[in-house]
Amino acid sequence: MGTYKLTGYEQSGELVFEESFTATTDDEAKEKGREFLESKEWGEKTHRLASPLGKLLLFHS
Hints:
This protein is of the alpha+beta class. It contains 1 helix and 4 strands. The termini are far apart.
């Protein structure tokens, strides 16, 4: 199990949120990240999800 980091930004570059959560696989982390983004209505705003190894799993600008 690893700790993944999801961050969201305004177009200006201002950090809006930074959430950390655990998941057993990258696929599980992507699903958790998408669920969080949908719950906050951030699916179309700038965001990224990084794995514990620094791998970029989700990105939208």
